[in-house]
Amino acid sequence: MTHDHPQPGLLDEIRGYWAGHGPLWKLYWVYGVGLSTLGGAFILATVLQRALPVSVLVALLGVALLYTGFILVSIWRSAFNIASDPLGIDREAWGWIARVLTFGWALNAGGGALMLLQYTLNY
Questions:
Q1: How far apart are CA 30 and CA 42, in angstroms?
Q2: Using CA atoms, how far apart are residues 123 and 111, in angstroms rounded to an integer?
Q3: What is the pLDDT of residues 91-100, one digit of tens each?
Q4: By the 8 A CB rule, do 101 and 33 touch?
Q5: Which domain holds residue 32?
Q6: Contact call for residues 27 and 74 (beta carbons, < 8 A)
Q7: Are 62 and 109 in contact (CB under 8 A)?
Q8: Which residues does 35 contact at the CB level (< 8 Å), separation at least 6?
Q9: In this structure, is residue 90 part of a structural domain?
Q10: How many domains is the chain partitioned into structurally?
Q11: Is residue 5 part of a domain?
């Protein structure tokens, strides 16, 4: 009799990332850069086209900021989860680079959200 171990689900994966157990490359490049860029482009397009009511846009920006907060914390906590020394640079240096860039990214996300709201409200 064999016991199959179930694959971890999406919620388990999300909890692991929040706890700092995710691979840095995946969190940074796939979820941080990739999905954030796609989401940001979508939000920017809807703002410029005035395609959504202000209330929906505010809700969408709220979701985007929550996602950004989650991904920033996950990257910060997983910054040193690197298997080797990419390009011959010490993995600890990569971890600190990721953390510094993540801090700047947080400032950019907050400022960008404020500017989009100002534009939308003609303020």
A1: 17
A2: 15
A3: 999 999 999 9
A4: no
A5: 21-120
A6: yes
A7: no
A8: 67, 71
A9: yes
A10: 1
A11: no
Q: Which residue has tokens 């990214």? A: 105
The Cα 123–Cα 117 span in angstroms is: 8
Question: What is the tens place of the pLDDT at every residue in 10-40?
Answer: 899 999 999 999 999 999 999 999 999 999 9
Cα–Cα dist 77/92, whole Å = 13
Burial per residue of 89-114, b for 16 or more beta-carbon CB atoms within 10 angstroms, e otherwise? eeeeebbeebeeebeebbeebeebbe
d(CA 90, CA 79): 13
Burial tier of 25 (Cβ tally within 10 Å: 0-12, 13-18, 19+): middle
Q: Which amino acid is at 25?
A: W
CA–CA separation, 86 vs 88, rounded Å? 5
SS3 assignment, position 116: helix
